[in-house]
Design brief:
Number of strands: 21
Number of domains: 3
Low-confidence stretches: 1-5
Family: Belongs to the metallo-beta-lactamase superfamily. Type III sulfatase family.
GO molecular function: linear primary-alkylsulfatase activity; metal ion binding; protein dimerization activity
Radius of gyration: 26 Å
Helix content: 25-40%
Pfam family, one: Alkyl_sulf_dimr
Protein name: Beta-lactamase-like protein
Structural class: alpha+beta
CATH class of the largest domain: Alpha Beta
Mean pLDDT: 96
Keywords: Hydrolase, Metal-binding, Zinc
Number of helices: 23
């Protein structure tokens, strides 16, 4: 549900003027994107919203929430950056679209039903689905729209994941709602090699923290409108339904690529090393692996019969993230540019249609080559110019301030604008990739934490009331601009994070109220969707406190994990300092899974939970042997905070056998619970 309504912050004169000037600078010739976004439209959503299958009153995706974009003025309201408004209107175009057609059938996309697109390829006797959106409910609704519009009831013959992000696999099981959730035997599920490993590492290991920050990045909890959320640049927002996963049955890259001797005229393009081929339901597909680009495991797909190229998420109608603001591993901008070059050289001459897992397609070889080349140049520029300045002694912050604009030849294209990634945080990300968090200045080697620093800064500046007064004076200045607002935030952050025993409650509340106004002003002026969302969510949480999370656990992810991955996730929840202090001797547990025949050993020592497949040759005699089924184990993992309690209950019920329950309980007692609503803008 949207957050509790609060009176919106009125836009300042300086931000309104900056947005007005930005509207004047908007480049001409922008109608082609709107024509392309509407091209091939066959049907629009026939429902106002999509609801949760487990809670009929919960909306997991709303179409009408964005009516202000689709039905509103072309001209942006004063409280929205006009460039971001344009992007929001484009991403709000929702429905079923025919991308192209051939002798065998058509290629369709369902867009505007989630953050990502779902692509459907018609084969001889069925359909192939690429990227089934982020949750069960939106995938089910998207497939229904296709079925109802085209009348095609042929079964799903294969499922393809282009990469390892949840908005490209989370709806997998929703495709089979029409079969009462029965998955066809032998269904090919195709993904790039390493997909499952990276899907787990991103969604499980640091999942709670990433999910919390994703609340800020996509602002699913915020109201939608000119004073609130207007999209995320890459799409509108992320759906909040049930995340599912069908594990891959065919990993592209695990086997040898196609050799020149095996190449066929039906492949259309000249042979190049490293390509993989599959023929599914009569449809020939060529795969180009692109590891380390937008995702650690990703691939582009070429359909030679249709001269159509799927660029996954490697080329979209915005500048993407080198480092996602929700948190992730830093991406390799150099590799990203390299694989775009490879795609151009491999497919360019024989491509007439380009589509991706976000945004709208492009038609015509020249338009596609220009698009891919300029996207390539943009990522190469981010990488190379960061390194140029790194080697001149610049820090990440300094690089971002020095290079605030792309070269004119890149900046003149809408698809290179920073609607999702930004020059500012992308330059900092490249710095982080090569140089890490430390800028080399010993003054920054051992910084005080926010509360300690805030307490001392506030005292040095004459107390909290004086700091808030100074910040208010700066905010009230009619000439206040983004630089001023950034400085005000630094001042007020020290008050908000100061030790409560050293500042008055009134001063803290005044600081929060003013900081919320400043967040709002920076949000109103932001061209970048996630920046706007971060600022406005931060403002909301300063007023009302952290919101309840919109995401929940994903059983399919747990069922798909190896034992090593599950115990690695458990190890990350061990209270290491407490365990190390209280348990000077190692505690060894032998785990036996009676249904799979697997065995493993875990050892708690020095505050670390060590996993060994099979028997640990050097850990010594186990203090306890635990026998259970994998299904029972998975159910314990999914309970999360109740793991030890449910373990003990299962022992009592006889579904788990353990010869020394006290030893097992000692280890399990050190597992801690993540906080899914931890504060971000407050201590």
């Amino acid at each position: 549900m949207p957050s509790e309504y609060t009176e919106p912050v009125e836009i300042s004169a300086s931000v309104a003027e900056a947005n007005r000037k930005a509207a004047e600078r908007l480049r001409e010739g922008g109608s082609q994107d709107f024509e392309d976004a509407q091209r091939g439209l066959l049907a629009q959503p026939d429902v106002p919203a999509i609801y949760s299958r487990s809670d009929s009153g919960k909306v997991v995706w709303s179409f009408t929430a964005y009516d202000f974009l689709t039905d509103g003025d072309e001209q942006a309201p004063p409280t929205v950056n006009p460039s971001l408004w344009r992007q929001g209107r484009l991403t709000a175009v929702a429905g079923l679209f025919q991308v192209t057609s051939g002798a065998r059938g058509g290629v369709y996309q369902v867009r505007g039903y989630d953050l990502s697109n779902m692509t459907i390829i018609e084969g001889d006797q069925g359909i192939i689905v690429i990227d089934p959106l982020a949750c069960y409910e939106t995938a089910q609704a998207a497939l229904k729209l296709y079925r109802d519009t085209t009348g095609n009831r042929n079964p799903v013959r294969a499922l393809i994941y282009t990469h390892s992000h949840v908005d490209h696999f989370g709806g997998a099981r929703g495709l089979f709602a029409e079969r009462n959730d029965e998955i066809p035997d032998g269904l090919p599920v195709i993904a790039p090699d390493g997909f499952l490993e990276h899907a787990v590492s991103e969604n499980v290991y640091a999942g709670p923290a990433m999910s919390r920050r994703a609340e800020y990045m996509y602002a699913a909890n915020l109201d939608k409108g000119p004073y609130a959320q207007v999209g995320s640049g890459l799409g509108l927002t992320v759906s909040t339904g049930e995340v599912t996963l069908l594990p891959p049955t065919d990993s592209i890259g695990a086997a040898q690529a196609v050799t020149s001797d095996d190449w066929s005229p039906a492949d259309v393009i000249p042979w190049r090393e490293g390509l993989h081929r599959r023929v599914i339901d009569g449809v020939r597909l060529l795969f180009q692996l692109t590891p380390g680009t937008e995702a650690p495991a990703e691939m582009n797909i070429y359909l030679p019969e249709l001269r159509a190229l799927c660029m996954a998420e490697n080329a979209t109608h915005n500048q993407h993230n080198i480092l996602s603001l929700r948190g992730a591993q830093v991406r390799d901008a150099h590799a990203w540019a390299k694989y775009l070059t490879d795609a151009i050289q491999t497919f360019g001459e024989h491509t007439e249609i380009e589509f991706a897992s976000h945004h709208w397609p492009r038609w015509g070889k020249e338009s596609i080559l220009e698009f891919l080349s300029n996207q390539r140049d943009m990522y190469a520029y981010l990488n190379d110019q960061s390194l140029r300045l790194i080697n001149r002694g610049y820090t990440g912050i300094e690089i971002a301030e020095e290079l605030q604009h792309l070269p004119a030849g890149l900046a003149e294209h809408w698809y290179n604008q920073g609607y999702y990634g930004s020059l500012s945080h992308n330059f900092k990300a490249v710095y982080q990739r090569y140089m890490g968090w430390f800028d080399g200045n010993p003054a920054h080697l051992w910084n005080l934490p926010p509360t300690e620093a805030g307490t001392r800064y506030v005292a040095a500046m004459g107390g909290a009331e004086a700091v808030v007064r100074k910040a208010q004076e700066a905010y009230d200045n009619p000439q206040a601009d983004s630089q001023t607002y950034r400085w005000i935030l630094e001042l007020l952050n020290h008050v908000v994070f100061a030790d409560p025993a050293t500042v008055s409650e009134k001063a803290v509340q005044d600081a929060k109220a003013l900081q919320a106004k400043v967040f709002a002003q920076l949000g109103y002026g932001a061209e970048n969707g996630p920046w706007r969302n971060f600022y406005l969510t931060g403002a909301e949480e300063l007023r009302t406190g952290p919101q309840q999370p919109t995401s929940k656990g994903a059983p399919d992810l747990v069922h798909s994990m190896t034992l090593e991955q599950i115990f690695a996730a458990m190890a990350r929840s061990v209270d290491g300092p407490k365990a190390a202090q209280e348990q000077r001797a190692a505690i060894v547990l032998q785990w036996q899974f009676t249904d799979t025949g697997q065995e493993c050993t875990t050892t708690l020592r020095n505050g670390v939970l060590v996993y060994v497949d099979g028997k640990d040759l050097y850990a010594g005699k186990p203090q306890a042997t635990i026998s259970l089924t994998r299904a029972t184990f998975d159910s314990l993992v999914l309970e999360g905070p109740l793991f030890q309690r449910n373990f003990d209950a299962a022992v009592k019920a006889g579904t788990i056998r353990v010869d020394d329950q006290a030893a097992a309980d000692t280890v399990l007692g050190y597992l801690t619970v993540p906080d899914p609503s931890f504060p971000i803008v407050t201590p």
